Amino acid sequence: MFLIEIATPSGSLTSDDRATLTADLLKMYAADGDAPEETLSRGRMMTHFGFNELEGWTTGDGPWRRGGTPPIWITVTVPEDWRAEMLYPTMGALRRSVRAVDRRNGWERAIGTLWINVVGIKNDSIGLNGKPSTADDVVDCITAEFRQRYAAGEVDVPEGVLVDPMCGMHVRLGPDAITMEHNGETLGFCALSCRSAYARRNDLPVPA
Q1: Residues in the chain with pLDDT values less than 50
Q2: Which domains does the chain have, with CATH numbers?
Q3: What's the whole-model pTM score?
Q4: Which residue from 96, 136, 159, 205 has the highest number of Cβ atoms inside 10 Å of its Cβ?
C-alpha cells in the first residue's frame, strides 16, 4: 500500500515531468528483481500515484506565477507500522526525482517550495478494499500467491541467500540483515514489516 499524491499549481508540469516524479518510487516498490513476480504484481496493483493540479496556488508571498519554479507538495500514505522504515528511502527517492525535473526545466528551487509528508495510517483505519484492515492484512494481500507456493515447497532457494518466507525477496546474510530464529532455522526478511507480520502469523514474539 503506497498512495502518493503530488500537488502542483495547475499547468506547471508536463507529462514527462510527471513520469520522472514517479520513476524512482516505482523502481523501489514495484520493480525489485529479487522478489517473485506474483509479489511484484500485487505490489504494483497496490501502488497508486495521483497528480492534483491546483488552481490559484498562493503562498505567504503571493500567488505563484507561471514561468517560475512551481511549488510541489507530496503526500505519501502508508500503514503506520511501515512509516519509520519507509520514511528516509521514500523521501530520498522523491527528492531525487524532483531534482531531475528541476534540472531539465532549469528551475532553481527556493527553500520551502518542496514538501514531502509521509503519513502513517493506524491499524483498522486502513481501508483495504473498503474494509478496516491492519498493516499485516496489507502484507498478507500482497504476498498471498507467493506464500501458497512457499507452503507447498515449490520455491527454489538460490545458494548463498535466504528467501523471505512472507514475500519471497532474496536476503543476503550480513550485519544489516533482518533475521529471526524459528524452529532452529534462521529466517531472513526484506523488511521489518515482513518479519513482524511473519511473527504474528505464527504466534511468535515480535522482535524489538
Answers
A1: none
A2: 2-121 (3.30.429.10), 128-201 (no CATH)
A3: 0.87
A4: 136
